[in-house]
Amino acid sequence: TLKDNLDLVRFIKQVQEYRHDSDTPHRTLYLCRVELWWSSSLATGIRGMQVRTQDAAYMAAVGKWFGVLLPLIQPYLYSNGGPIIMVQVENEYGSFGCDHEYISRIYDLMHEQLGDETVYFTTDGPGGYHCGSMNTTQLLTTIDFGVGGDAAANFEKLRKYQPHGPNVNSELYTGWLDHWGSKHATRPAAKLGSALGALLEMGASANLYMWHGGTNFGLTSGAQQEVFKINPTSYDYDAPQSEWGDLKLDKYWAIRNVTSQHFPGNKMPVPQSWPRLTGITLNPTLQGYLMEHLIPLGMFFYTPLTFEQLGVFEGMGAYRHVLAQPLVNASVVVQGVHDRAYVMADGVFVQVVKRESVASFSVTATKTLTIIVENMGYIGFSKAMLDYTAEYKGISGVTIDGQSPLEWEHFKIDIRSLSKPSRSVANLTTTDQQPGTFNDKVLLKNGPAIFQDTVELQYSQIMDTFINITNTWSKGYLIVNDVLIGRYWPDAGPQYTLFIPGVYLVEGRNTFTLIELQSV
Fold first, then answer.
1. Closest-CA residue to 207 (of 173, 240, 176, 238)
2. pLDDT, tens digit (0-9, with 9 covering 90-100), for 9-50
């Protein structure tokens, strides 16, 4: 739903107000989201839907979605006095498929709603436009490349494909996106200035992707590529303006020095940093366990169903099997984990299973085997999006000593509701069995747990701030008051600090909830 942080119309109105109120030359803002193409198949519940193709079910879902989305933006087209100057038909489709009729049908769906009074365009990397666009006057082909790209060579090739239209780099990468478990991505300021200068020197247009870093609040972060790489909560991107609004002055001046040579007379003062509250220190205490918050779906099946089949489209779910006979050092394999599994034996946390791991582990239990599974984000780029069998969420099966146990009960977990946990902190199990270990840390005996702390703030302290999640913790989620900020994962990095906008804080008591999935 388009509300709260996803309120697109409110965002567009703010852009329009900014343009009309500013004394500086008019500029436009660029809204980009690599779409969760899975949303169409999720919304319809059609297993095997072929996204970004002419698959009938997919095209019907796109048409239904456009029927909601496009009427919302139509009043804000530039031709109607709004700030929307261009509408993108497809994004880097040439890296995914090569069906010009599909692109034409997407264009037609947009054109039916928005008419002729806007510029329709596609974006692809150099060379990708042969498949990702169409050589027609109705559709402008643009390209994207970073600071190392050869602008002259790239546009020379583009003009051979599409002789008409301006030269546009619709995504000049000012930095790059991060992934859990990798180093923070950066791009040199000097190279950014040189790349922008080369574009302007040849009369080309450029959109800086990104000018301002952002945040994947809640569960909106995704993943990339055939090798599953997960984006963190931060989308700082090493952009000229940081996730929290401060300028990175080396990049700011690299851009401004170049643009002033081509567009002199800019007297805009250098933006100043926002005041911020010094980072808040937390001392959370245990409030409950995830095992107390499993919501039964009333569904029992011989084999585990995927999240999509269960209607669980984000966050976490769980599977439980009641043992017919006790297990003693049984060899257990959780198959097809997408994306991370937390295994409980009689309520004791015994194992963490990473995506696609096929390693077996030993389990001793007399009553139940419960597997909590975390959806860490859908792939938003590459052909892996096309294969439902490769990009479902949940698990595909379990074996115990080589046999597949029958009958699994299914649950969902509402992460956002965990800011109001049950107040029972009594052990959920009385067994003497010890928990397992993961990454040389002892797992929480009773499984993923809920911790909270409260902080009193005065009105003068209501401003942007940060929470530093150190490696005292391992992996989980942060909720501030009732707002799910996002994931933390200090065991992986590179993000260790979560940005908290002041609008999520209140005068008086503020509640900070950590959903720790592994170890403290």
1. 173
2. 998 998 888 765 544 444 444 455 544 444 444 444 566 678
